[in-house]
Amino acid sequence: MLLAVILVAACGVQAAQLNKVAAVVNGQVITMFDLQKNALPDMARARLNPDNPADAKQVDAIFRKVLDMMIMDILIAQEARRLKVSVSPADIDNEIAKLMQGRNMTKQQFEEQLARQKSSVAELRGNIEKSLLRQKIMSMEVGRKVVVTPEEIRAYYEAHKDTMYDRNGLHMGVMVYSPKVNAASIAAQIRSGALTFEEAARKYSIAPNKEKGGDMGPVEWDRLNPEWEGRLTKMKPGDVTELFDLQGHKAQVHLFRPGGGGVKMLSLEEAKPQIDAILRQPKAMERFDDYTGQLRSKAVIDIRL
Fold first, then answer.
1. Which residues form the signal peptide (predicted)?
2. N or C: lower Cβ tally within 10 Å for the chain?
């Protein structure tokens, strides 16, 4: 009888422990606590309550999406160790300095903003390290295998001559509309010239950069994800996008050169590096997907959601 009680108690303890594990990736545990913490921003943007049964399906979808990203971060980190690839503290310091410079913030202002966003410098450093590791692995194992031919570059130039302008020094302005305002009406005023993008951002945006008219600093073209690259490469300096959805809010983007100035169109020779980067990105992402698929296929992944 006593043995039966002990076994039942042990099973109960084991079940409780298993309930706290979201996944195990090659022996490395992802806890439910860490998964929930990483999923919180997405759930907040979607205004979902994990304790509301009506939201259960959407919450589960977010959990699985975030878990997939966390699994990939672990696989990339494990692959980096195998390849002896690392990111130095100085590399991370440089990235943080760029962020502060782009937002025109002091160290104290930057840390205060992180605190308002329920984050910390330590968490940011961890996220930057993951991002830089991914970039290094992608460059080593993917980038060198991607080929863009002169014929492809010439064909792209002929088809997109009107978009081949000098990108150096261009800034991106982002406006995220408050749900309390009529975004369509404000966008129409910007389009008509009755209101500038900067004025609208200062008055109606809920993004942290609203005081600077939405200015996010210089565009880092080589670090844009495919969605943002696709959006910006269709624009010319001075253009403002139509409204689009961004994390549950209406948003607009302004591409501009501080201080104004005309649009300098590029010759084929001048445009080659720019076109190479444009054509290389989707090819690299396709190869990266293949590469990460191979990592997954070789990994032992136990998902316990």
1. 1-15
2. N
Could you tell me if 294 and 271 are in contact, meaning their C-beta atoms sit under 8 angstroms apart?
no
Q: Is 54 exposed, middle or buried (0-12, 13-18, 19+ CB in 10 A)?
A: exposed
Q: What is the pLDDT of residue 19?
A: 57
CA geometry: angle 192, 236, 279, nearest 5 deg: 145
CB 25 within 8 A of CB 299: yes
pLDDT (tens digit per residue) in 257-275: 887 766 788 999 999 998 9
- What is residue 24's three-state secondary structure? strand
How do residues 181-236 score in pLDDT, each as one tens digit? 999 999 999 999 999 999 999 999 988 788 889 998 888 887 777 678 778 877 88
Query: Considering just the CA atoms, what is the radius of gyration of the chain in Å?
Result: 23
CA-wise closest residue to 233 among 289, 163, 147: 163
* Residue labelled with tokens 């990203």: 69
CA neighbor of 66 nearest in space, from 46, 104, 29, 40: 40
* 3-class state of residue 248 by DSSP: coil
User: Which tokens is 170 given?
Assistant: 């261009």
Say if residues 177 and 250 touch (Cβ distance below 8 Å): yes
C-alpha distances in angstroms, 167 versus 65, 99, 274? 34, 20, 9
Euclidean distance between CA atoms 103 and 98, whole angstroms: 9
Closest CA to 241 of 164, 232, 169, 204: 232
Smallest CA-to-CA distance from 183 within 254, 242, 235, 256 is with 242
Specify whether the CB–CB gap between 305 and 68 falls below 8 A.
no
* pLDDT recorded at residue 7: 34
Which of 167, 223, 177, 179 minimizes the C-alpha distance to 197? 177
Q: Contact 173/214 with Cβ under 8 angstroms?
A: yes
Which residue would you say has higher pLDDT here, 181 or 117?
181
